[in-house]
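Late entry, iron/sulfur cluster complex.
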Amino acid sequence: MKLKVFRYHEGMSAPHYDTFSLEEEPSMTVLRALFQFQEQFDDSLAFQYSCRGSVCGACAMLINKVPRLACRTQVASLLKGEQQIALSPYPALEEKVGWDPSQEVLVEPLPHFPVVKDLIVDRNAFFKSYKFMEPVIKPESIPPKENLMDPSDLPDLELYTNCILCAACYGACPVDGENKDYLGPAALAKLYRFHIDPRDADNRRLEKADINNGWWACDFHGNCRQVCPKGVPPIMAIGQAQAELMEKKEKSEDKK
Ligand code: SF4
Ligand code: FES
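Prediction complete; structure with ligand written out below:
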């Protein structure tokens, strides 16, 4: 089996791919394969990781043309064709790279971000959108002890709190690829998460993204939900937010 890896650093006239023959290890992840590449082929290969346990989100990259976490993606199952996901197309997926999926694992940087070096991308645009959403609880008043909530509110909330900010959804979203100002699936899902949090007292959360590059820019491709390693459904949050905003607007029109 082989690992085919995207290589680029500042000053290079164009990126290229390096192919390395892997020594098979039991339950080998793509992250482990990248370490083997570093140890045995070229220690200048750059990639990001931290937890190695699908928690920090740092290792998201394009693996076999699908944004995934390198630390939880098994090489053997990719070669068996077990982890194929059919995504709505966008340019980065359609770039022609000579690659044999039955023999090789293709590893490239997460699309829609500037490449810093090899597999490392600059995620500033992603975190700028996230910050714009003001991702903190704004309670009516500071509670004297714990801020308790009804346990029946938890399942809906947990759908969105599971996000680990890996940006796989951003890299999979065709709209993010075309429109650099689109807030993106993760930030919108996070905004919706605060909107439905019963402890939050800001009742203008949805209006924050009631702009051209917010809720209304989504084309409902659904790639975000398909690639999310934590099962977060940003597309659902966006659909619900749009419906709630439209209902609000209709009611205010009726009152006039
Ligand atoms: S919504 Fe899912 S894919 Fe998007 S940043 Fe959060 S965990 Fe990653
Ligand atoms: S290294 Fe943390 S999610 Fe993969």
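The CA atoms of residues 247 and 253 lie 10 Å apart. Will revisit in the morning.
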